[in-house]
Amino acid sequence: MSPHDGPAPTSLGLIRNRTFDEIAVGDSASIQRTLTAQDIQLFAVLSGDVNPQHLDAEFAASTRFHGVIAHGMWGGALISAVLGTRLPGPGTVYLGQSLKFLRPVRVGDTLTVTVTVVARDETKKRLTLACACVNQAAEAVIEGEASVLAPTERIERPAATLPEVRMNADGDGLPRLLAHVQPMGAIRVAVVHPCDALSLGGALDARAAGLIEPVLVGPRARVESAAAAAGLDLAGVALEDVPHSHAAAARAAELAGQGRVEALMKGSLHTDELMSAVLQAGANLRTKRRLSHCFLMQTPAYPRSFIITDAAINIAPTLEEKADIVRNAIELAHAIGVAQPRVAILAAVETVNPRMPATLDAAALCKMAERGQISGGVLDGPLAFDNAVSAAAARVKGIESPVAGQADVLVVPDLESGNMLAKQLEYMGDAATAGIVLGARVPIVLTSRADARDTRMASCAIAVLLAHRWRTSPP
Q1: Which residues contact 179 (CB under 8 A, 6 or more apart)?
Q2: What is the pLDDT of residue 448?
Q3: Is the pLDDT of residue 174 over 80?
Q4: Of 120, 150, 180, which residue constitutes the final position of a domain?
Q5: Of 96, 119, 150, which residue sits at a domain end?
Q6: Strand pairing of 306-309 and 292-298?
Q7: Residue-number span of the structural domain to which 65 is assigned
Q8: CA dist 274 → 74, 265, 443 (Å)
Q9: Mean of the pLDDT values across residues 175-180?
Q10: Is residue 206 part of a domain?
Q11: Is residue 262 in some structural domain?
Q12: For a Cys staple, 4 with which of 27, 82, 217, 447, CB 3.0–4.6 Å?
């Protein structure tokens, strides 16, 4: 820092000003800030400016700027930050400001904001400062002039610790999803071996919400005992009596293959036991595609719902199997209203490395999409997780991609990495989740014993959405 730079917080967490007498014409100070989607959302919350140019990606794409841009006064607020914390710093009184907005600021742009003293009024202790914001390409974004009353006494204070702000704009996701699918009408669902309170209660909750008409398939004595222990009423609910979980899986698959139910829902049996029954040739549930699982997730830290796949079925998928995993995820994205999903093929790095098979698979999948072997979405990879979900991270690494920073689908290298990612987002990232298996002739609701009621409800709602879609466009 040169002698004429404005002060910054010290290593001890202090913030200092410079008095009028210590400031000369030509002194300057700067800060740098990279715009995130959360910055735009938070500024909209604080200002009340909900212009769709800043918040609605679909609308913004049709404007002259061809995408979402920041509010102009977001940059103006950064100028205020330099004046109030750097030059002159604490004790400054902001008197006036003129600004010209020269270029739009987009998510991932890094602004360098500089104020430079151009005039001093000794009598009134006022300063006039030229203000400039330039982006990472050294292009002028904002220019202007500020007038301030400079402090006359030295101020040194501990730098304030700001509270953490968490955006949760889509917290009403489940109610909106339920409101969307309930008018479609309930579907008949075979609930496989619901012999504990969680799986049985989840099915009855979905019934009460108007999503499903459950057909309970399991040992009658165990199902009724679980209901009695949990205080659940089975009146009016169909129950197919079978001797054990293996028979329950086989019977449920048979019902689905005969068209007597439109979906399957896992109860208190192992996933592989249910999947094995689905894959039996006599069940008539197989398609040309491999079965794969999709987590549909929504987290406060990301501005859109997204899909993680496959984190529950395919342990170490081959390239051919990954192609089906991608196709299934694209089909789910279409069902939830994403016309052209952006699919990020994840790896640990964003470059192809022959010693990292996941990067080779990613490159091959993208080439398959180019040649029409995978359709309906836009693929890119390999992409590291940060580049897939953060435009700023992608820009720093020089990645130009229609997917980076705005992925709708995250395709993981294997089950272990996918399962850990999904569980981390759920338990430490406050993500809402739904789980569904695609690739069969009916959707399969696959939930964990630890899943919350909302997760089970959302998963049933996705099954309803798919079942109604497949009535006219079977998989």
Answers
A1: none
A2: 77
A3: no
A4: 150
A5: 150
A6: antiparallel
A7: 14-150
A8: 53, 9, 13
A9: 78
A10: no
A11: no
A12: 27
Neighbours of 221 (CB within 10 A): 10
Q: Is 110 left (phi over 0), alpha (psi -120 to 50) or beta?
A: beta
Per residue in 45-101, pLDDT tens?
A: 889 998 989 988 778 888 898 888 999 999 999 999 999 999 999 999 999 999 999
Best CA proximity match to 295, nearest among 307, 283, 312: 307
Within 10 angstroms of residue 56's Cβ, the number of other Cβ atoms is: 14
- Residue corresponding to tokens 């439109």: 262
> Are β-strands 444-445 and 432-438 bridged in parallel, bridged antiparallel, or unpaired?
antiparallel
Q: What is the pLDDT of residue 9?
A: 47
Residue 382 has pLDDT above 70, yes or no: yes
Question: Do the Cβ atoms of 385 and 351 come closer than 8 Å?
Answer: no
- Cβ-contact 136, 110 below 8 angstroms: yes
Question: Strand 212-218 vs strand 187-192: parallel, antiparallel, or unpaired?
Answer: parallel
- For residue 314, give the nearest of 414, 227, 392, 412 by alpha carbon: 414
| Structural domain contains residue 123 | yes
Joined together, the tokens standing for residue 427 give 């338990």
* Reduced 3-state DSSP string for 399-443: CCCCCCCCCCEEECCCHHHHHHHHHHHHHHCCCEEEEEEECECCC
